[in-house]
Design brief:
- There is one protein chain.
- The protein has 316 residues and is α+β, with helices and mostly antiparallel strands.
- The chain has one domain: Endonuclease/exonuclease/phosphatase (Deoxyribonuclease I, Chain A).
- Strands 3-4-2-1-13-12 form a six-stranded mixed beta sheet. Strands 5-8-9-10-11 form a five-stranded mixed beta sheet, with no helix packed on it.
- Strand 1, helix 2 and strand 2 form a beta-alpha-beta unit.
Length: 316
């Protein structure tokens, strides 16, 4: 991507970042055949204005993918606008509204996509918890701290819906209950006779410490699973790479749509390497507020499903 008229110091830092990106071995996407998708929690993105170099770093990282689900986007969209300006005219954003209470944390969820590879199909909505009638009102028996957000897209011959969420960080029991509620909602959506599309991708920050935890069991209780490209590597998405907070999930019948490519993009490495990006020096904590305390999790999606459709016609 074109970073414009920047200083030699920033150019040198961007070269260091690009070396870390190269180490992630993200394969190029192929027009009408594959796209690279990612989920990334950018810490408190928009709460406090980021440094100019940080905006360039974030844009460079996002540009490696074709569709990115962003978590922890805040109510102020100014920094998102700065990133989109660097990404250029081919990039678009679809985002939710913020929730002002403490549970909502003034957060939004956004989808950023390169329209040369991905087309927005029109659906953009928050997931609403099941309701029951109480007097004159319909009220949810339970609800999400922050409503999961979904949007429909098309790439190649594949139409699909992506749902992204940021699960609560409160008590473990409360988080387990919320993830179970989300799993039930997704299963209901999948079984709905009238739905936008059968191909559903679920991703985001689930605050899951490991894939053996009760939280992972709660979100996968109806059969959601990890794409093969991520299952074998089992990458951690915190800076230490030992926690599985972020996930990309799908139902088994759509496994053919996922390649065996996937992983995390490690823009951090360790504390000793911070000065390569920020020569004036930052603590690790300060670094997380300039880039993030989460690493992007990515996988490659096969988007040429014309052969599958022909087989379905033959099989009746």
């Amino acid at each position: 991507m074109d970073h414009g008229n920047i200083s030699a110091k920033l150019a040198a830092s961007l070269l260091k970042l690009k070396a870390r990106i190269d180490a992630a071995n993200i394969p190029p996407s192929r027009l009408d055949e594959s796209i690279n998708i990612a989920t990334w929690n950018i810490r408190e993105f928009g709460k406090k204005r980021r440094r100019e170099e940080s905006i360039h770093f974030i844009a460079e990282i996002i540009s490696q993918f074709d569709l990115v689900g962003l978590v922890e986007l805040r109510d102020n969209l100014a920094d998102l606008g700065r990133v989109l300006a660097l990404l250029g005219n081919d990039w678009r954003a679809v985002y939710s509204d913020m929730i002002p209470d403490a549970g909502g944390n003034r957060e939004r969820i956004a989808f950023l996509y390169d329209r040369r590879a991905v087309v927005f199909n029109g659906l953009a909505a928050e997931a609403t918890a099941p309701r029951r009638k109480v007097g004159l009102h319909y009220l949810p028996e339970n609800d999400f701290w922050r409503a999961p957000y979904m949007a429909s897209f098309r790439s190649g011959t594949l139409d699909f819906v992506v749902l992204t969420t940021h699960a609560q960080w409160g008590t473990e029991e409360g988080r387990e209950e919320e993830l179970g509620l989300l799993a039930d909602w997704i299963e209901g959506k999948r079984r709905d006779a009238v739905k936008e599309d059968k191909d559903l991708i679920v991703m985001g920050d689930f605050n899951i410490p490991s894939r053996t935890s009760k939280h992972y069991k709660a979100i996968t209780k109806h059969g959601l699973q990890v794409p093969k490209g991520l299952l074998l590597k089992d990458p951690g998405t915190n800076l230490e790479k030992d926690k599985r907070y972020d996930q990309i999930l799908h139902y088994p019948e759509f496994d053919v749509n996922f390649s065996d490519k996937g992983g995390v993009l490690d823009f951090f490495i360790d504390t000793a390497h911070i000065k390569e990006l920020f020569p004036d020096g930052l603590t690790k904590e300060a670094f997380t507020y300039q880039l993030s305390d989460h690493l992007p999790l990515w996988t490659q999606l096969n988007t040429d499903v014309s052969g599958q459709r022909l087989e379905q016609i033959v099989q009746g």
